[in-house]
Amino acid sequence: MKLCSLRADGRPHRTWTNVEATDEPWSFYIPAGSPVVEADGRVWSSPYPVVAHFFAGCFYQVFRLLKASGEEYYCNVITPPVWDASHTAVVFHDLDLDVYVAPDGVRVLDEEEFAAQQANYPAEWVTEARRAAAELVRMANAGEGVFSKAAARRWRAWVEARPS
């Protein structure tokens, strides 16, 4: 299956092409080295496994970066995810605003890009994007939900138990 990120106008932005379902709805496994295709055709991959967490009805998504040195999180502010008609891809619009969670702190990224693009978004998307970024920062700082130590242990154990 795939994860398909679109721009506000529906143009392709980025596609994760080697994605697997997990035992939790809206959470997906991306093996290390899986190709990610940019809209311009460039291809890249992460040297570590990633678990992508989506939340039905929410304006954010969290990539759990399972690095050997520990976990970090790259969070995208997005429109709520939907399945495509064939149920083989999760599709969402990237709203440019991101949150990065690392051992040394939580940072909101791409605020300038969001400010430059927000005129292209419906007013609801702008309001919800700001709310989503604030909620991600709050949860990350509090170690709640997807950012909890229990969730980190659960997903690392799940990945390590996978057959190679």
From TrEMBL:
Keywords of the record: Hydrolase
Pfam families: DUF402 (PF04167)
Protein name as it appears in the record: UPF0374 protein YgaC
Record carries keyword Hydrolase: yes
Superkingdom to which the source organism belongs: Bacteria
Domain DUF402: 9-144
Gene Ontology MF: a single term: hydrolase activity
